[in-house]
Amino acid sequence: MKHKINLSMFDFKRVIESKSFFVDKSLFIKEVIEEGSEVVLITRPRRFGKSLNFSMLKYFFDIKEDSRELFEDLKISREKESLKHMNKYPVVDMTLKDVTGSSWGNTKDVLRVKMGKIYEKFKNDVWDCLTDKQKKIYTSIEEEEASEAHLIESLLSLTEYLEKRYGKKVVVLIDEYDAAMMNMYGREGYEECVDFFRQFYGNALKGNDSLHKALMTGMMRVEKEGMLSGLNNVAVYTVLSERFSKHFGFLEEEIEDVLKEEGLSLEETKKYYNGYKFGNSVLYNPWSITNLLHNKKYEIYWINTGLGAMELIRKSLKVHKSVVGEELEKLIEGGTVKVKVPQGIVLEDVLKRKDSFWSLMLYSGYLTTKEKLKGVDSYELKIPNEEVKSFYTDILDYIVSEITSENIMTLLIEGKYEKFERKLNEGMLKGMSYYDEQELFYHGLVYAMSKTLNDYEVLSNVESGNGRPDIMIEGKEEGIIIEIKRAKSDLKKSSKEAIEQIKDKRYWERLGKEVKKVKLVGLSFKNKEAKVLVEEIVI
Predict the structure, then answer these.
(1) Rounded distance, CA 449 to CA 228, Å?
(2) How far apart are the two ends of the chain, measured CA to CA in Å?
(3) In this structure, are residues 397 and 324 in contact, taking their beta carbons and an 8 Å threshold?
(4) Is residue 508 a contact partner of residue 518, using CB atoms and an 8 Å limit?
């Protein structure tokens, strides 16, 4: 290995001093300085370099550091105006990504511990500037015994103490500002959590004369819930924004040489880890690239299951049935969806409105934009790369597991048709949370089960013969064509009609020349019952 790779390093100073692999994003500092807003929120998916970038800001601005050597070989060292701000401000930096708990009470206790450590860190700086009353409150926070009222005021108070001590306004850095709320969503105490942070952020970031600048990161811009309600001084930059777009994730020119030096294929790397579009910049996943350089294997490294996103996505799929039966298949087959994507997310609407669902998928990193469409908040979305595509395989596995505990499609391959029909009917009764009478959903269910097969190519609604079969499964020597019908009355009759449609339109024409045997499957549904008929032919 020609480059030192340390996967556990998120501290900028340690990365630079240890000469570990580092992509120079220091011009991010210049953009932050030039952004005139007092409070800035930058939203990105998890593990896209937010923590390291914020650590870099901390060392650049912090009045307690001497950072000239850290930055002397970086791009920012050539920006004279920016350098005037180096080590000029007291800095309060905190991350909320680990402020989680099984209840709001537990979560609040974790926050008490967090603020206690921060107060302990600054005690020697500010102690002599405090009144006796302030010292008493300070000690209660440091010893993790603060009342809720004092906890709400703790960040505001600390900025006031630091300004008094240094005679300089304070820079506040908050990483994963929305983590606690995402963790609490759907749990008892959620409203109390939102109300607490509304006051916590509002006190510290609005009308605070001790504040020079505050920067926050998170996974999404949360609307309505009120985390930032009343903060009219916040500039928000999402994955759809051009500003700051190049600083989170790796541009191709930033990693091309290191890939070559480590003997890794640029094309293969691009296929697996590239494709995220932030603003107008196309980027690689930095976490995945770092792991690739470390392991020299093209594997799945980015698993964005934190902050409650995965659980919320799974819940949403049970509500938005057409996503399972239509859009999900288009995406997996390499297509796109054209949808509305609101700039902010109302968490409670994710389970009610599809546009909020698509916003969650985009902002959490499971989709990216292909292009902006005409119309307000209208975009064409796609899966960015092969690594993320694996997430959709996991989603299909999850859907199937809700219906049946075994891969019943193997029964179809093995010719056990009656057992396949019986197991399918049992699954429909079990999977009530997914059940829907629309043919579109039945199609999605069978597609999901088919995609769990190993060594088979599964296609949905592709041109073949004189039409588009619902599902085509191709093995080395055998193919399966599945046509799905929603029966109005007679299930068996509908299944026969499905098989006749396959024959009339010669849906097997797309199968490879080596395929000699084809199973024609007529699958009809009515309410909670399914009927399966199979006819085998030689082509």
Answers:
(1) 43
(2) 53
(3) no
(4) yes
What's the rounded Cα separation, in Å, for the pair 536 and 438? 28
Q: pLDDT (tens digit, 9 = 90+) per residue, 21-68? A: 999 999 999 999 999 999 999 999 999 999 999 999 999 999 999 999
Q: What distances in angstroms separate CA 67 from CA 15, 259, 419, one per listed residue?
A: 14, 30, 70
Buried b (16+ CB within 10 A) or exposed e, 448-481: bbbbbbeebebbbbeebbeeebbbbbbbeebbbb
For 437-491, the three-class secondary structure string (H helix, E strand, C coil) is CCHHHHHHHHHHHHCCCCCCEEEECCCECCECCCEEEECCCEEEEEEEEECCCCH
Helix (H/G/I), strand (E/B), else coil: 34: helix
Mean pLDDT of the chain: 90
DSSP letters for 210-258:
TEEEEEEEESS-B-SS-TTTT-TTEEEE-TT-STTGGGSSB-HHHHHHH
Compute the average pLDDT of residues 80-103.
95
pLDDT in tens, 272-317: 999 999 999 999 999 999 999 999 999 999 975 455 677 788 888 8
Please give the Cα distance from 335 to 327 (Å, whole number).
9
Q: Give the SS3 label for residue 179.
A: helix
- pTM (predicted TM-score): 0.87
Q: What DSSP designation does 89 have?
A: B
Report d(CA 270, CA 285) in Å as an integer: 10
Please check the confidence at residue 378 and state whether its pLDDT lies above 60.
Answer: yes
Question: Is the pLDDT assigned to residue 151 strictly greater than 90?
Answer: yes
Q: What is the largest CA-CA distance in the chain?
A: 92
8-state DSSP, 194: H
Amino acid identity for residue 417 in this structure:
Y
Please give the residue that has the higher pLDDT: either 448 or 503.
503
What is the C-alpha separation between 395 and 391, in angstroms, rounded?
A: 6
